[in-house]
Amino acid sequence: METVEALVVGAGVVGLATARRLAMAGLETLVVERHETIGQETSSRNSEVIHAGLYYPPRSLRARCCLAGRAFLYRYLAERGLWHRRCGKLVVATEESQHPRLRAILENAHAAGAHEVEWWEPEQVRRLEPELRVTAALWSPASGQLDAHELMTAYLADAEAHGAVLVPRTPLAAVTVEAERFVCHFEDAAGTRLAARHLVLAAGLAAPALARRIDRLDPRHIPRQWLCRGHYFVLRGRCPFRHLIYPLPDEASLGIHVTPDRSGRCRFGPDAEWIETLDYRVDPARAVRFADSIRRYWPALPAEALAPDFAGIRPKLHPPGTPRPDFRVDGPETHGIARLVLFFGIESPGLTASAALAEVAARRLGLAPSAEFSDLAVP
Question: Which is it for the CA torsion 101, 325, 349, 288, positive or negative?
């Protein structure tokens, strides 16, 4: 049976960022993925936004990793010549009764470290986006966009340049925890087994189910997961906006927002629909609900102008109607198993925070802080 120093389960954006971090630290690293290629689930079914850190509780793991990840991404994408744009974002109120919530987001952003966020009056918004109808807004100049596939490909290239290997079509079946290693069994025709000294579970939607296959992991440390599907629609015709436009968030999502995408299309979404099983279908009839929401801030949306695009599913650690908990990057200090790290509930802003989350995982494994994140305080 072969042995590697580090095994990462899952080749989404967080798994690839973690493989990159471990390989660059000198660990022989293997990444296994059940799909045929990288980033086939949550990592490729999102808004591809670089978040600025407005919404997350100060000093939470979400907030710290979002802010550190944002700074890292702008440097990283620029250095590698990857497409991105720091376009800025407006978070809009459409009636005065929403102003207290908008001010609360502003205060939270400043407390969390996003000091550049500003309160804007309607005339300031109209100069930037004349087709919007708002009573006030927040301007976030540090928000931006990227190409998620390009980012994941770059993470993988960095990892491979330092000796990491990606093995697709290799679902994890079970893990036996021994004194100095993890013996991993895979669901392939050969019944492959592999031993690893370090194990990182970055399996996204499958994380709780796979965690239950680790034989010595106490079930008390495996959270329940809920699924929340977000649909996207695109505008038929010219996009009237140049910036990200967001309504006020709810407990499940950041609201049906506007993303002018790389190709020049205008994408709207996601909404939030709690579901029981994985299902990525988009019901065209949801366009009516989308239009009602969009017209609150863009009254000129033409009739019959929305076409179905795609859907993504968020791995939630809370049921409908309850507060959103923090990200979980569980190491030995939580579950008591040395050299094991488990990612749970990594949704938005996981894309933005990916490299910072990888840094957290590396430190949970006992690695020294990297120069890229020397200032990141890990709770």
Answer: negative
